[in-house]
Amino acid sequence: MKDPIQDYATIGLVHFMLWKDNIKGEGDFSSVSTLLDDPYFGGIEVSWIKDAAERARVAQAVKASGKALAFGAQPVLLTQKLDINHLDEAERKKAVDAVIGVIPQAVELGARGFGLLSGKNVAAADKGKAMDQLVKSLVEIGTELKKHADIPLVLETFDQLDYGKNCLIGPNADAAAVAREVRKSIPKFGLMIDLSHLPLQGESCAQAWQAAGDYVVHAHMGNCIMNKPDHPMNGDEHPPLCDPDGENGVDELAEYLKMLLDNGYLNKSTKPFLSFEVCVYGDWTREKLIAQSKETLDAAWARI
Fold first, then answer.
1. b or e along 147-174 (b: 16 or more beta carbons within 10 Å of the residue's beta carbon)?
2. 175, 212 contact by CB (below 8 A)
3. Domain count for the chain
4. Cβ contacts of residue 303 below 8 Å, gap of 6+?
5. How many C-beta atoms surround the C-beta of residue 60 within 10 A?
6. Contact 159/200 with Cβ under 8 angstroms?
7. End-to-end CA distance of the chain
8. What is the model's pTM?
9. Does the pLDDT value for residue 270 go beyond 90?
């Protein structure tokens, strides 16, 4: 492709994955300027920022940059071991309340989307009830979100592996079934697809899109390492793209991009989010990883 990828997408990066010291909503968030000052990126993804003054500084920096921001509530749930499809109603409500509690933060930060994930997978006999609990939670959260901002609520699809996140959603076909139901009440509800999760889900790009493409409103790029229990990044830990022990490199990213382009997700009209979700480990520095991520995306895009 001769045109730059930025003509077809808002290239972003998940801040709370690259700067994991902020994943609990605490600490110094001045690192957001690294991404806001980089002309390669048109957007950034952040999560909760507990300190009001720190949050105000980030909001002002984002506004001044003119770049897009997406809010991810995944850390709110994961770091507190909360589950929006918990079979126990009190536990489900606790998780929903925690997510609703950070909606004002997303609005203050100027978010253009609000992401989250399902809770833990359950035994087959309990799946129907868990799916019902999930739909109930998403409708409740989406209803509250609509009171604050006209932005999409987005469910990210994960794996069902013990060494991954082992989430109810899960398979993209199940995600689509949830989306169909939730959209009856929350029309702007959508799904997030993530290249790093596809090998863990056991689905190809084509299979994932065929199952859930009608509902996809957000996309991530990343990598995973499978079936290597001694590896520090085994499972859903987001190692760098092209990691020699990983599943996704230039070829896989090119296939993913082509799928997104051919099906209209990548387009010059809306330029939807397409964000890196990568994490440092070993000898990697953040600077090196950002540079390598850009190089990988440019190489993959050049093959389209």
1. eebebbbbbbbbbbbebbbbbbbbbbeb
2. yes
3. 1
4. 250, 254
5. 12
6. yes
7. 5
8. 0.97
9. yes
- Segment 188-243, tens digit of pLDDT: 999 999 999 999 999 999 999 999 999 999 999 999 999 999 999 999 999 999 99
Least Cα distance to 192 among 207, 210, 177, 172 occurs for: 172
Q: How far apart are CA 249 and CA 272, in angstroms?
A: 22
Model confidence at 1: pLDDT above 90: no
| 132 band by pLDDT with thresholds 50, 70 and 90 | very high
Tokens of 198: 């596809």
How many C-alpha atoms does 184 have within 13 Å on its Cβ side?
8
3-class secondary structure per residue, the chain: CCCCHHHCCEEEEEHHHHCHHHCCCCCCCCCHHHHHCCCCCCEEEECCCCCHHHHHHHHHHHHHHCCEEEEECHHHHHCCCCCCCCCCHHHHHHHHHHHHHCHHHHHHCCCCCEEEECCECCCHHHHHHHHHHHHHHHHHHHHHHHHHCCCCEEEECCCCCCCCCCECCCCHHHHHHHHHHHCCCCCCCEEEEEHHHHHHHCCCHHHHHHHHHHHEEEEEECCCECCCCCCCCEECCCCCCCCCCCCCCHHHHHHHHHHHHHCCCCCCCCCCEEEECCCCCCCCCHHHHHHHHHHHHHHHHCCC
Structure tokens at 280: 């440092």
pLDDT at 2: 87
Region 35-63 average pLDDT: 98
Residue type, 234: N
173: domain CATH number is 3.20.20.150
> Domain range spanning residue 248?
5-301
Both structure tokens of 42 = 């048109």
